[in-house]
Amino acid sequence: MSGHQYLSEEGFRVDGRRAQEMRKLDCSLGVFAQADGSAYVKEGNTVVLAAVYGPHEVRGGRVKALHDRAVVNCQFSAATFSTAERKRRPRGDTKSVEMTLHLQQTFETAILTKLYPRCQIDIFVEVLQADGSILSVAINAATMALVDAGIGLRDYVCACSAGVFNDAALLDLNNLEESQKGTGLTVAILPKTERIVLVDMSSKIHSDHVSKTIEAAIEGCKDIHATFDAKIKERVGRLAALINTEN
Amino acid sequence: MANLAVSDSEKTFIIHGVEDNLRCDGRGCLDYRHIELELGAAPNCSGSSHVRIANTDVLVGIKAEIAAPDHAAPDRGRIEFFVDLTANADPEFEGTGGDELGQQIAGALAEAYVSKRFLDLSSLCIVKNQQVWVLFVDILILELGGSLYDAVSIAVKAALYDLRIPKLTVSIGEDGKPEIEVSDDPHTQEPLAIANVPCFVTLSKIGSQFVVDVSQEEAECSTVNMCCAIAPNGRMATTMKTGVGSLHPDSLIEALQLAQEIGVALHKALHKQFVKAQELSGRTNGFLL
Question: Does the beta-carbon distance from A81 to B62 stay under 8 Å?
Fold first, then answer.
């Protein structure tokens, strides 16, 4: 399939969206009782589950403990049946290791680690279905799980992917669009200050298009922030109402 | 398996309760917890299911692929199990922490499915000696709440029930070699005959009683577990003893008979639920939402 077909003359993408349109975003919090915080995020056909354990004592030797801040420990793994082609193993491959590093660096910035000295916070991300924009959905799910766990954050971390096709910026790429070489990037921001905490450009983009694509992705991040913020407020409101009736 | 800290007095409480046929959640010794079942939980698989028994959460996805058969069985398809214990279930499973238990469960499943009396894989043969269907059964453990083997085997059977394999037409090409054509019409997809597929029934001995479907706290009190794979007709596919304790031959026979009775009843109840779940399949909006 050649490049121009990713955006038709009428302005529609392969899955019927407009260029700047995001996929349907759904999420639910506190899906598991065992973890301190958990979230299930579904963006189109990409489904990610995140669990947060902590803050707790540092596991596996006190050498790793930091006297003035928390250790943020992440793991990215993808179910072997999540992709169209079956994966040989769920984690430990180059891509998973890279994703783990991205998550770790992003959340070390976002978590108020100084609040939890000599502690460890675990973030485990599990991709159940992969249909593009995995990194951004993983970051969004991890944020929601951290909020659910009640861990101090500077702000939400909202992530969105974007790409360029024929001079037009497309938001929230699906698998088909992503597999087109040389197009996509992922941006994560702290929405209040609009500071960028992550840019991952694993393919090449013409320098003329970079700023435009990043701007589009930031707009997408803001949309996600609005959705998440409404979701959290609704949930907290419901929980608060429950506490009131008990009294 | 991930261990839970249970104090001595808690253990005594559980054991005394079991002696009186009353467990912490109000069940009798031979009662199961509520089993939640959903088919088609992972739409990108040929067959999938999601099973939740109280806190035990299992997601199974089956992908059917075409590959060369085993030399030992050139006219039969293959079924391969892979169990992934995610760190979501327990931080101990991070990295390679869950591999050992995963392999143990996958091995037990493979053993239970090995005989063609229970699952006839010859229907998965496409061209003898050359091409067969391989079913990759990938099992994801999302949360641990005891009775793992039972939950996994129920989820696998459900996913096999949900499995639809594309219809193939094999014709001999001009060069005399068989050509395979895959039908892309979803309505011609075929289900697998799973009428005899076994499920695990685990009986744990707590005090002097046998108990089914133990919670994690109860598992800490049990001395020995008998894990039996029972087919719907009552035949036993495999059986193994897990745990550190030992067992008197008389109790072993008692356990096997009990497992057989429970297994037959379990399959009947499951089949009804499969039919119900099939009707709802695909209509729900993601299994956790």
Answer: yes
**Biggest alpha carbon distance in chain A?**
64
Instruction: Flag whether A8 is in a domain.
Output: no
Domain residue limits at A140: 14-246
Contact B84, B140 (CB under 8 A): yes
- Binary contact (A91, B95; C-beta < 8 A): yes
Tens-place pLDDT, residues A134-176: 999 999 999 999 999 999 999 999 999 999 887 888 999 999 8
Min Cα–Cα distance to chain B from A139, Å: 16
Q: Which residue of B has its CA nearest to A43?
A: B286
Q: How far apart are CA B88 and CA B181, in angstroms?
A: 41
**pLDDT, tens digit, 9 for 90 and up, residues B7-36:** 999 999 999 999 999 999 999 999 999 999
CA torsion angle A92 A98 A99 A105 (round to 10): 130
Long-range CB contact pairs, A134-137, < 8 A, 24+: A134/A46, A134/A48, A134/A78, A134/A99, A135/A99, A135/A102, A135/A159, A135/A161, A135/A186, A135/A200, A136/A43, A136/A160, A136/A161, A136/A172, A136/A186, A136/A188, A137/A41, A137/A43, A137/A46, A137/A48
Residue A3 resides in a domain:
no
Residue pairs between chains A and B whose CB atoms are closer than 8 Å: 96
Domain borders along chain B are: 10-279
φ and ψ of B146, to 5 deg: 85, 165
- Asked whether residue A5 is assigned to any structural domain, the reply reads no
Closest-CA residue of chain B to A96: B95
Question: Quick one: CA dihedral B152, B155, B159, B160, positive or negative?
Answer: positive
Q: Span B111-118, mean pLDDT?
A: 91
The verdict on domain B10-279 having CATH code 3.30.70.260 is no
Q: Nearest chain A Cα to B61, which residue?
A: A81
Domain count, chain A: 1
What is the ipTM for the molecules in this complex?
0.89
* CATH at A232: 3.30.230.70
- Spell out the SS3 assignment of B168-233: EEEEECCCCCEEEEECCCHHHCEECCCCCCCEEEEEEEECCEEEECCCHHHHHHCCEEEEEEECCC
Rounded distance between C-alpha atoms, residue A194 and residue A128, angstroms: 30
Is residue A1 domain-resident?
A: no
